[in-house]
Design a protein that fits this description.
By secondary structure, this protein is mainly alpha-helical. The protein is built from 11 helices and 3 strands, in the order H-H-H-H-H-H-E-H-H-H-E-E-H-H. 66% of the residues lie in helices and 5% in strands.
Length: 197
């Protein structure tokens, strides 16, 4: 998977992903779901092109959960849903995936379980040294990427702003999802904030 700044247009999109998962669960194809989303303006956007763009993003993330994890999504707790939405995001974007492991997990295990906004910028600078693609991203894109990542970490409950820094915490989920996570390395890492097995 290549580095992509495409997730600057990402959002939490819980209702859209939930709708898409429900339609997949009912047996509808990608094309059928897309047509219904456009015809009925399910995502409540102004133009067909905006709806199509949003559908691309949402469908890609929904497919990371369907079929197995969608059952945990619909039958789980609110916390389970939040973890799975973050999971779907990390599964789709290499930079976000690596940021989680190399920054969030690391800060939790080795740096007093705290994160500062400046840590996000320092991490980006390190990645620029490793990838010409990242080095060529516009400064506004880099800021938006860090904002998007912080949004996802906050929405999931993984980070919480306390004074001038974020406190990093593992995510609490149902016993059923925790048990399933034993067979999924990323999901287990999201729950435990530990890398590896």
């Amino acid at each position: 998977m290549e580095y992509s700044a495409g997730f600057t247009s990402e959002g939490w999109f819980q209702q859209e992903i939930e709708y898409t998962l429900d339609q997949l669960h009912k047996g509808f194809s990608r094309t059928e779901i897309r047509n219904k989303v456009i015809e009925d303006n399910i995502f409540l956007l102004r133009s067909e092109s905006a709806i199509s763009k949003r559908f691309q993003i949402v469908y890609r993330r929904a497919k990371t959960l369907y079929p197995t994890l969608s059952d945990y999504y619909f039958n789980g707790t609110n916390a389970d849903q939040k973890v799975l939405l973050l999971y779907s995001f990390l599964k789709c974007y290499r930079y976000a995936y690596e940021n989680f492991y190399e920054l969030i997990v690391y800060r939790y295990q080795h740096k007093n379980r705290t994160l500062k906004v400046s840590d996000m910028s320092f991490y980006m600078e390190e990645k620029e040294q490793q990838s010409e693609n990242i080095a060529n991203w516009h400064i506004a894109t880099k800021k938006k990427i860090n904002s998007t990542l912080l949004l996802f970490y906050r929405e999931s409950g993984m980070i919480e702003l306390v004074e001038n820094e974020y406190k990093v915490s593992p995510l609490h989920v149902s016993q059923a999802l925790k048990q399933y996570a034993e067979q999924d390395i990323l999901l287990k890492a999201l729950i435990t904030l530990k890398a590896g097995g």
